[in-house]
Each structure stands twice: as structure tokens, then as C-alpha cells.
């Protein structure tokens, strides 16, 4: 496993991270979830990502149970806050009250005294940036979080957060967690250049496009019985991102042929493609089996030639609607 700095900051994360969205605490039982997390750690993964809203806190509990049996100092533990965790008027968003209270709830569920990376799960237009930055500053000064970041924020709001942090002499966000893969590249136009300029690193989610970029889904064929595409909640996300059309799946089959030609799996090709950019600090994978982890971690350190990168772009052309 190779490691990268998170943007310009000293924190180093594994090129392949492991997440818990829709898996740990949800579709995967607790024993298997902990086994997968421990296996990931054994394979060199040090970046564990979760969120309070995943399975309404259950994912954090499973991650916390796994981490307490490992050396905490060797783990970069990340979680998120924003989405509603109750029905009250202050039970969602990025207000000082909600962030402060949810940080403490997350610490309890994760069974830890601090969070390495505390991320704002979405941008909240109802909260002044000064309020959010000062809240993160206070949590940092109290030792409850070490760094903070954002997820799926537009470039101008990332720049605003960094500017306000500078004005308040407060720590700025150090990372962004966006959707990014061969089929979804919207962050390339403005988010990545802004983050490069301001020193934030990307920890991307869905680098395998919900499993589509493993090549297991075939155009015109039934989905594998145990696949995410057979879960209505996950399938809705995949359809919404235009990941399950025959046109998409046909292109992925061409990518699989290219991967086979250069001696890697389709998943390794997709992950290595993301990691071709220096601003991508880590690719967050989801896993229900240790075999998936074994395959994915081998992408760390793979360097794709410019010819292979061009051939990938030719297969998934700029005119293809799936690139957004």
C-alpha cells in the first residue's frame, strides 16, 4: 500500500480507503463487517470513512467496534455531519448546535476520544460560513477533531470556507469528498483546480461507480443475485447517475478488455485511473467480502501510461452522457 498526503497537509492516508455507506451496519452483518475492516487494515488501509447518517448511526457503531481492536494511532478515522438525525428543527444541517451535538454522538458511537477528519456531508446554505468555521475551530481546539473537511461542496463554497478560516485565524478544511470515477468527472472543471490551489485533497467516493466499473454488470443480462443493483435503494442511486444503461455497460465491457490487455482487473484499472491525479489522495471503496479488498488494494502503486489513459478517454468519450 502506498500513502499520500491529504492535500498540502501532513496527514497521510492510504491510496485505497474503506467506507461504510450502504454496507457496514446495514446490508452486511456485524461480524462480517468487522472482519472486512480488520482485513482492510491488515492490507495497509489506514483510512476508514463513515458518517452519522449511515444506517442512522449503526455504521459508526460497527466501525467503532472494529477500530477498538486495532492500534488507534495507525487509523485515520473519518466521519460526517449534515443530514437529519431526528425530526426536530435543529436535528440537521451545519448549525453550531447540530454539529457540536452530533460530534459528541459520533465520538460515543465510534468509541473514541477524537475524530481524525470531521466532514461536512453537504453544503448548508442556511448557515453563515463564519458560524461553521468557528464551530470547527472550537472542536479542533478542544481536541475532539484533528482536521475537518467537506463533501460534495462546489468550488466557490470551498474557497469561501478557506477565506473565512484565514480571516478568523482558524483551521481551514483540508479535504473534499466528491463522487468521482471514469464515468463521473464533474469535479475536474473547477473543484479540483480550486482544491489544488488552496491545498485540499480529494478522498473520492464511488470510484468503482457502485460496482459498475468492476465489469460484473453485463448489457442485456440479469444482474448478479447478490449485487447492489438488486437493492432498490442502491439501484435508484445507480440509475440516477446513469450508471446502468446498456450504453454505459457496453463501454465498461470495452474497459474490461483494455484492463485484461495490460494485466490488471477492471476494478484496478478504474482505481488507478482515479489515482493518476495527484490531487486524489484516496479512493474510498465499499466491500462486502475480503476478496474485493484484496483485488482493490492492488491498484495502489499502479501507474497507467498516457496511452492507456487516452484509450480510456476514447472508450468513454466526452460526448457520452454518463460523464458529468
Draw up the topology in text.
Blueprint: E1 3-5, E2 12-14, E3 16-19, H1 30-42, E4 47-49, H2 58-67, E5 76-81, H3 96-110, E6 115-120, H4 129-141, E7 145-151, H5 155-167, E8 175-177, H6 191-198, E9 201-205, H7 232-240, H8 246-262, H9 266-274, E10 280-285, H10 290-297, H11 306-315
Parallel strand pairs: 3-4, 3-10, 4-5, 5-6, 6-7, 7-8, 8-9, 9-10
Antiparallel strand pairs: 1-2
Helix pairs in contact: 1-2, 4-5, 5-6, 8-11
Tell me the span between the first and last alpha carbons.
30 Å
SSE sequence, one letter per element: EEEHEHEHEHEHEHEHHHEHH
The CATH homologous superfamily is called NADP-dependent oxidoreductase domain
* CATH class identity: Alpha Beta
Largest sheet: 8 strands, parallel, barrel
Determine the CATH topology.
Answer: TIM Barrel
Q: What percent of residues adopt helix (DSSP H or I)?
A: 25-40%
Strand content: 5-15%
Radius of gyration: 19 Å
| Distinct helical segment count | 11
Number of domains: 1
Structural class: alpha/beta
